[in-house]
Amino acid sequence: MTAQPRQAATVLLLRDGVDGLEVYLLRRTKGMPFAGGMTAYIGGGVDPRDGDAEIAWAGPPPADWASAFGCDERTARELVCAAVRETFEEAGVLLAGSAEDGTVVPDVSGEDWERQRQALMTRELSFAELLAERGLCVRSDLLRPFAHWITPPMEPRRYDTKFFVAALPVGQEARHVSGEADEVSWLTPAAALAQAETGGRPMLPPTLHTLDQLRPFAGVEDALAGSPPEPLHPISPTFEKTPDGAWAVLPDGTRVRLVTPLPH
């Protein structure tokens, strides 16, 4: 029986580095039930409470995100909030700000913030409760839609994943706080892909392909401006083996070389 894909959000957190655009990558611990040992972006499944209507909001409304991702408004709200929540949980970066003056929260590294981050991860605290206690709103204008991937039907664990790009807010620093990762890195897309090609940094096809999509952008501003303006078409690859290696084949015929074992 084919598993139903779970709604999930993934965030390509970006900054401008010495050598150009850099993206924040985590290497998932080897014992993880999904993509263990793989290098990936921040992200995870939607918590139903992410769609709470009382969450304060600034920026493009859920209807705009629903149009971009081809889903209903409730799901769109859940996805944007999941993207912001997961970024805080896994990197200690909060894409939120004051509901009064529109500023972005400048620093979320104190002990009181850390207690709330931990409570979010254990689900003792909902994202809506965190924002309400702090008088903050979700800043959906700090995010852009970037890609939409659905795990192929043959996989027992499937995700309907919406990919976002976001700039690291001024005054905040990404921190290695995720218990799901044993290494974090800021890398240029080209450097990350070079490491993947030599087998030193295994990645799943969506990570490889989206890194390649980021490669042409000179910096964060270009990447945010270059995000697809049209509704995104979901990608669910098929797989093939040839004498040249193993490939993920996308619906438009694009082939992504795999440096990891084929799904089975």
From TrEMBL:
Alphabetized UniProt keyword annotations: Hydrolase, Magnesium, Manganese, Metal-binding
Top-level taxon in the UniProt lineage: Bacteria
Essential cofactor(s): Mg(2+); Mn(2+)
InterPro entries the record matches: NUDIX_hydrolase-like_dom_sf (IPR015797), NUDIX_hydrolase_dom (IPR000086), NUDT19 (IPR039121)
Molecular functions per Gene Ontology: hydrolase activity, acting on acid anhydrides, in phosphorus-containing anhydrides; metal ion binding
PROSITE patterns noted in UniProt: NUDIX (PS51462)
Span of domain Nudix hydrolase: 4-209
PANTHER family named among the record's database cross-references: ACYL-COENZYME A DIPHOSPHATASE NUDT19 (PTHR12318:SF0), TESTOSTERONE-REGULATED PROTEIN RP2 (PTHR12318)
Protein name: 8-oxo-dGTP pyrophosphatase MutT (NUDIX family)
